[in-house]
Amino acid sequence: MTFLPGLAQTAPPTTVVWAPAMTAYNFGHSHPMAPERMELTAKLAGSLGLLALDHVTVAAPEVATDEELQSVHTPEFVAAVRRVSENPGAPDEARGLGTEDDPAFAGMHEASARLAGGSLLAAAAVLDGSALRAVNFGGGMHHASRDRASGFCIYNDAALAIQRLLDGGVRRVAYVDVDAHHGDGTQNIFWDDPRVLTISLHESGLTLFPGTGFANEIGGPNAQGSAVNVALPAGTADAGWLRAFHAVVPQLIGAFEPEVIVSQHGCDSHRLDPLTHLNISVDGQREAATAIGNLAARYCGNRWISTGGGGYNVVSVVPRSWSHLIAIAAGRPVPLRTPVPEDWRSYVRDKYGARFGVEPPELMGDDVDLWWRSWEVGFDPNDAVDRSVMATRKEVFPLHGLDPWFD
Fold first, then answer.
1. Angle at the Cα of 309 (from 331 to 112), degrees rounded to 5?
2. Residue 143 annotated among the catalytic residues of the structure
3. Which of 56, 200, 212, 320 is deepest in the core (most CB within 10 A)?
């Protein structure tokens, strides 16, 4: 695959996927997946000036066609989503439609397919060279499998973007998932495809949905080592999480040599998230996005598609984390001590104060110490994070020509 040349690494042409119509992905007032998190992210990124940068294009997604969706989903599943979308009173729980996690609602197909269309738009922009980087913060629906909805996810937009890249001639794609939950759907869709490396760092399935994502899940018979999982113990904080990331991800990306990185940035790993048990800060999430962007610059000529994902602290966490993601993708990172714009804080108070009942954050970061120990200082068998990391390294590093002890 030959890509068009890009601009300087400090200001890569960047597409940000956004339109108010994306908030139609709405499971109801009491559901944790509040669509307001998308609106508040777009508004905060706008208040920070990120959407008005000369090299940033804001693009509205189209509803993905059935043919596009069927590149990773079965025709029967797409037809089932359409039926439930038209008649929410007749759920299809066998396919995950109309369950407690994924309640049926009128227009479900169109709303889900629009988010999917956003990641397809991002892939198309990278393929045609109009962007080196693209962000679909409304995407990241990583639990959806080929034939079933799961975990608040109907269509798997990240998988669709990866497949579009492959169909467009990209030879190798690395998928990096930093959501608190295991990226099971994306992993399973590409389970036996050696062209796709899926890496997921998540809270252990022993304590969190979906109960999968252990070190011994390494890919199908034709793609051994293509699935990589770091299952972190509940309570893991910034230092342990970043140590794990840097002990696994850069080494495997370097060995795999992808042409494009696709990443999922669920920010439900935050210490204030109501559904998970990790202890990460916005600062740590920003550091992870920075590291992935640096890997894209080093190995992929800056070609990077990033998506959102989980994140259920709608006011204090999600908008800041994903605004940082947009800023990093655009090559204009926002310092952590930057005050949150007062116009955004006033908007939150006026429109959502009664619903969410929290005071908007004052700074773009959580003001924490991000110091972490490099893996090179040595493996500590008494540390639960280190044991998880070593389990992963032993399973997959040799399959990539890497030494689990020294690389």
1. 115
2. yes
3. 320
